[in-house]
Amino acid sequence: MCDFDPQEKSLQHSLESTVASIDYHRGHINLIDIPGYPDFIGRTLPVLAAVETCTVVINAQTGIEMVTSKMMEAAKDRALDRIIIINKIDAEQVDLKKLFDQIKETFGKECLPLNLPANNNAEVIDCFFQASGKETDFLLVEEAHTNIIDQVIELDENLMGIYLEQGDEITPEQLHEPFEQALREGHLTPVCFVSSHTGAGIGELLEVFAQLMPNPKEGNPPQFVKG
């Protein structure tokens, strides 16, 4: 939808920024698709002034590139929420565990997976909303879930007390505000695995965006989540 220009189709990459949107659950998500090709970084960086969330897409085949680091650094300088999306997980000869380890080494231990590839990278298993699940290609769902909960509730003493003293499972509703805060403060950088070819992980990614929308119990109108 975004790369509709004949030249963009021929080159197979974006030349200009394009606005798109989607309605999901109770909210409306505005997206600005910006060029990822290094030659167009000058057109890309100014767009960050118009968004709240920066989603940086990493090609699973090529890994972390120069433009990846520049976008992450620019988003951090602007104190934007940052989300890393690993695309093309179903491509041939990709090592997703190695790539994830490189992401943590490059961008910090706050980079944690909210879902994990499974069935030889053919599908994605949520590890944010569920505390356990089927076997994944690397890392246990239970371990990934615990890592996320620990990272998020560090910012909420009341939730930490409930979690440590009573051992109760924390609900998504309870995590809503501290999750938002963790992203705003750079305390958490979610990593999501997807395949634009098969659609694997897209639903899980949208649920992450839903966590950035106001809690319906608060009675607030939907906000725009831009990335």
Short structural summary:
This protein is an alpha/beta fold. The protein has eight helices and eight strands.
What would your notes on this structure say?
The chain is built from 8 helices and 8 strands. It has 227 residues and is α/β, with parallel strands linked by helices. Strands 3-4-8-5 form a 4-stranded parallel β-sheet, sandwiched between helices. Strands 1-2 form a two-stranded antiparallel sheet. Strands 6-7 form a two-stranded antiparallel sheet. Residues 216-227 have low confidence and may be disordered.
Task: Write the topology of this structure.
Elements: H1 6-11, E1 18-24, E2 27-33, H2 41-44, E3 53-59, H3 66-77, E4 81-87, H4 96-107, E5 111-113, E6 115-118, E7 123-126, H5 141-153, H6 157-166, H7 172-184, E8 189-193, H8 202-210
Parallel strand pairs: 3-4, 4-8, 5-8
Antiparallel strand pairs: 1-2, 6-7
> What is the CATH-assigned architecture?
3-Layer(aba) Sandwich
Question: Strand-and-helix sequence, N→C?
Answer: HEEHEHEHEEEHHHEH
What is the radius of gyration?
18 Å
Number of helices: 8
Total domain modules: 1
By CATH reckoning, the class would read Alpha Beta
